Amino acid sequence: MTVTTAQQTIAFLVASEGIEEVELTEPWKMMERAGHVPVLISPDAGTVQLFNHLEASNTRPVDVVVSEASVDDYGALVLPGGVANPDALRTDEQAVAFVRDFVASGKPVAAICHAPWTLIEADCVRGRRVTSWPSLQTDLRNAGAEWVDEQVVLDGNLITSRKPDDLPAFNEQLVQALGG
For 20, which DSSP code? Predict the structure, then answer.
């Protein structure tokens, strides 16, 4: 698939571990195929540990620490899931502020699986229609969101999906949001 859009730098925000590998690597590859430049952002410098469900897999180098990241430098934000990843991110003040500022910017923010936990902590789901891994539906409803069980949901600049099986629709929606 060839997409002709203006090249943009895309932020991928993750914690230092617990990232569901496919939820990082598949959107990353799609952004590269679409002509964009993905950048890995994390609270700490060094490398991050990816997982295939509960088993450690590969590592990836961090490009930018979140304390030095500016929303102005990126065309979109991708929040991969995994259980431990968004749980750790939502306890990091600078990561939460980056997410909050990104949502407020109006630029696309794409979150899959458990990643909406970080959106909840940033108070960005109130009055929004979203989806996630099913175990988050009560958390999302308690935070003021309308939770639905759909493959991909677009509400304003928020793009959400439930699980790795939804990645093709998730990726396509993100490319469209970037003008593809």
Answer: E
